[in-house]
Amino acid sequence: MQNRTDIYQALRPKLFGLAYRLLGSRADTEDLLQDAWFKWIAADAATIRDTEAWLVTVVTRLGIDQLRRRQARREDYLGPWLPEPLLGITGNEAERLMEMGADISMAFLVALERLGAEERAALLLRDVLEQPYEQIAETLGKSPAACRQIISRARRRVREDRPRFSIDHAAHRRLVERFAAALLDPDGMAFAELLAEDVSWTADGGGQATAASKVLHGVRASVRLAVGIARRADGQWHTRVALINGEPGVLVLRGERIHAAMTLVSDGRHIRHIYSVVNPHKLPQPSPDAAP
């Protein structure tokens, strides 16, 4: 029979994927999984019929508690809030996290931010882990009918924020590479050509780094910001295409120190959304290896 450590480690990728999608923070996810581990080793194994279901329930309830506590702190956050990017994970690790039926992209995590704590948990349990409504109801302490309503409402809200176009991944990768090449050009013309007319740019500085205090909309505002970044870089920064949340993104670096982690949403022809995390507390150092 497997010992407790082996059982937990086998389930850890799934638990990490759930907790990270709930919290949008690698650091908070690691703390939560540590708490779940302590609960696991303290539990009476004889009373646990289904280990995976038990651990998923523990992680979900811990995550809901953290989300509720965080709501109060979020009111004091300066500027837009974005999830903490996952940097330096390999393609295989990204695939393991994405095996559970939903992506870990920044766009998906931002869409989840529209949801309340229980809505987010219920949606992930159903659409990512494919749990039956009865099991979700037991985890959340609600009836199966109530959970169906919660999940249906959550799906509608997330769908409103998700792209409505299919994406050619090769074309998107080429756009990311062109974005990386054009971002620090103070001319701004090549950068402007990449953008859709209704492009939006969300930058998370958290009051710890220079960033737009609100979401920018339109080509003119986005180009103005990019030109400002290029001038501030003054030839001292460079860009690198890297895996960010399992998809190609752009790192802005000074030497090997990360200044920004940027992910893009495109239709394969133009960039429609830019998500830029510049809050240094959300950026690991030193730089991870570049993506292939």
Written overview of the protein:
It is a single chain. This protein has 292 residues and is an alpha+beta fold. It folds into two domains: 144 residues, Butyryl-CoA Dehydrogenase, subunit A, domain 3; 114 residues, Nuclear Transport Factor 2, Chain: A (Roll). The chain is built from eleven helices and six strands. Strands 2-1-6-5-4-3 form a six-stranded mixed beta sheet. A hairpin with a 4-residue loop joins β5 and β6. α6 packs across α8. The longest helix is centred in the N-terminal third of the chain and has 24 residues. The chain is elongated, with a radius of gyration of 20 Å. The two termini are 40 Å apart.
What fold name stands as the CATH topology of the largest domain?
Butyryl-CoA Dehydrogenase, subunit A, domain 3
Range of strand content: 15-25%
Q: What is the mean pLDDT?
A: 88
**Rounded Rg:** 20 Å
Cα distance spanning the termini: 40 Å
Shape: elongated
Q: Can you describe this structure in just a few lines?
A:
By secondary structure, the protein is an alpha+beta fold. Helix content is 51%, strand content 15%.
List the helices and strands and how they pair.
Elements: H1 4-23, H2 26-42, H3 51-74, H4 91-98, H5 106-112, H6 117-128, H7 133-140, H8 144-161, H9 169-182, H10 189-193, E1 195-204, E2 216-217, H11 219-233, E3 238-244, E4 247-254, E5 257-266, E6 271-277
Parallel strand pairs: 1-6
Antiparallel strand pairs: 1-2, 3-4, 4-5, 5-6
Helix pairs in contact: 1-2, 1-3, 2-3, 5-8, 6-8, 7-8
